[in-house]
Amino acid sequence: MILLAITFAGPYLPFVDRELSKITYILNEDKRPVIPPYPPSEDYIFGTDKSGRDLLSLIILGAKETIMLVACITVLRYALAIPLSFLAHKKWMGTHLFLKWLNGMLSYIPTLIIVMLFSMLPPFLLTEHRPIFLLLIISLAEMPRAAEMVKLEFDQISSKEYIYGGIAAGASPYRLFRTYYLPFLFSKLLVYMVTDLGKVMFLLGQLGFVGIFISQGLVQSMGGDWQLVNNSISWPMMLMKAFEDIRGPIWIPFFPAFAMTCAILTFNIFAQGLKTFFTKKVRYI
Amino acid sequence: MLHSILKSAAVFLLILVGFVLILLLPREQKITVFSAFHVEADYPFSFELYKKRIRDFTNYILTEKGLGDARSGRTVREESAIFVLRSIKIILPAFMVSMLLGTLMGALQFYRRKKFTGKLQNFLSWLFSSIPDFFLFIAIQYLLILLMQQGLPHFKLYGHENWYSFLLPLLSLSVFPFLHMSRFTSAALENEMGEEYVRTTYAKGLGDLKALLHMLWNCWSPILNQAQLVMLYILSSLPIIEKLAGYNGAGKELLFSITSNDEIKALSLMLPFLFIMFITIILSQIAKFWLMPKGRP
């Protein structure tokens, strides 16, 4: 709830600097100009970044974009995983073998490396729709794992008696899916998806450290080569310079990472709550 | 058993080939110079180019009889070995800590599950397993920096030169797998609670501790299955943590070689990682064969 409140109502709080005004310098006690970043103090609770923007405001304003991205990736992932898992469950044209192979591959190579390798490919690097492609890559990268989990659920449910009952009663495949599988699958899926929100956030954070983000533009620099430029204020972006910042103004990576931790914690609490809610519901029927 | 090991080896080879194919996808920049003021950069991407790159790569491997020389004059293999050895110093202890101590901790948690301390431990391990490792690392460093300002003796937080520099990455890297193992073990033990043999143990007059030992022995299969997952987790977090710590290991170099499109180096650093995964899988299979009671699925 707090996370949602910050995400949607946060930008209208009085202390949030909505313009994200940049400060070039402030004068210290000796009337000497001091350039940002400033450490956490009374004026700036979380400190400021290198161009003098208040980190607290930055995090609150970036929350909406970040949460939206995470939600989009998760929904996309499951939108792809559910049909695939159903086909794999039906063993349609060797889908189950394909899924098994993909999962074997993913259990050897870290997701981070795969996303890095694919996101730097020229066709995805040069298009105008890079954010969409990156969304796709990130959601596809962990999709087989999700599909495998859903497939196991399908396998488990279809061994139950009432499914045979449905088949014997002459239910069409669609009806079978809609009224026999879905009500039982729904609660599990919801729990999986909320848990996945946390994992996606973690992956986005890791990608932030390597400098790969969803909203990036490609700009030709003076030297003639192309450079990736960020035009977003989402949390992972603030981690990009972490390797330099960690040796000096360590609060710049600290607070966005802290915000991510809070978000992951919230998702996990939510998932846990949903789980207990659903198990209770089933038990008392 | 030999059958399953051979199967794993075949899967490993397939995955290796798949990885090399992904790595070789054309991603290089082509710069055409027309005149001093007219330079065009382009990223060509076509199937012919891909085929050519694969051919070049196999030729390179065949002519160099290995991975060839690095820019420093040494062979790539020697150079990678330095980095990999540095990383092994983190990977192995992290794996050991999470597998052995994690399992022990899980058994302990199960043993105390009804007491207050057990419940507290359950809550804490749940809370800490939600914290991403990179945040943990940054938080520890921030705390240490603040403490040093307050008068803690100064020591170096970054780099790989000091004997203690692997401790901080190791700590932040092993927290999540450790907690995962402990939670998993305790859940696996709870599943065994209703089995007949536990009742038999008590009927024979053996105490709680002996019963726990019996149950643990029956849990080896799911616990050992987690070995692969734990290793994968450690390996996927390693690059980021190494980079944050300025620890010059294989993970950090791997990130660098991928971003700078150095396929040979990326391959030479990724190979040991894949191999470590493979060994983990094989070892866990062998351990399962030795430890598991016969006749259980």
From TrEMBL, chain A:
Alphabetic keyword roster: Membrane, Transmembrane, Transmembrane helix, Transport
Matches recorded under PROSITE patterns: ABC_TM1 (PS50928)
Classification via Gene3D superfamilies: MetI-like
Source superkingdom: Bacteria
One cellular component term from this protein's GO annotations in UniProt: plasma membrane
InterPro entries assigned: MetI-like (IPR000515), MetI-like_sf (IPR035906)
Membrane topology: Multi-pass membrane protein
Membrane-crossing residue ranges in chain numbering: 67-88, 108-125, 189-214, 250-271
Domain ABC transmembrane type-1: 63-271
Localisation: Cell membrane; Membrane
PANTHER family assigned: OLIGOPEPTIDE ABC TRANSPORTER, PERMEASE PROTEIN, OPPC IN A BINDING PROTEIN-DEPENDENT TRANSPORT SYSTEM
UniProt-recorded name of the protein: Peptide/nickel transport system permease protein
Origin organism lineage: Bacteria, Bacillati, Bacillota, Bacilli, Bacillales
From TrEMBL, chain B:
Superkingdom to which the source organism belongs: Bacteria
Record flagged with keyword Nuclease: no
GO-annotated biological processes: transmembrane transport
A cellular component annotation (GO) from this entry: plasma membrane
Claim: Cell membrane is one of the keywords in the record: yes
Transmembrane parts of this sequence: 5-25, 90-111, 123-143, 163-179, 270-291
Chief location: membrane
This protein's UniProt keywords: Cell membrane, Membrane, Transmembrane, Transmembrane helix, Transport
Residues of the ABC transmembrane type-1 domain: 99-293
Bilayer disposition of the protein: Multi-pass membrane protein
UniProt cross-references to SUPFAM superfamilies, sorted A to Z: MetI-like
Subcellular location: Cell membrane
UniProt cross-references to Pfam families, sorted A to Z: BPD_transp_1 (PF00528)
PANTHER family: INNER MEMBRANE ABC TRANSPORTER, OLIGOPEPTIDE TRANSPORT SYSTEM PERMEASE PROTEIN APPB
Name recorded for this polypeptide: Oligopeptide transport system permease protein
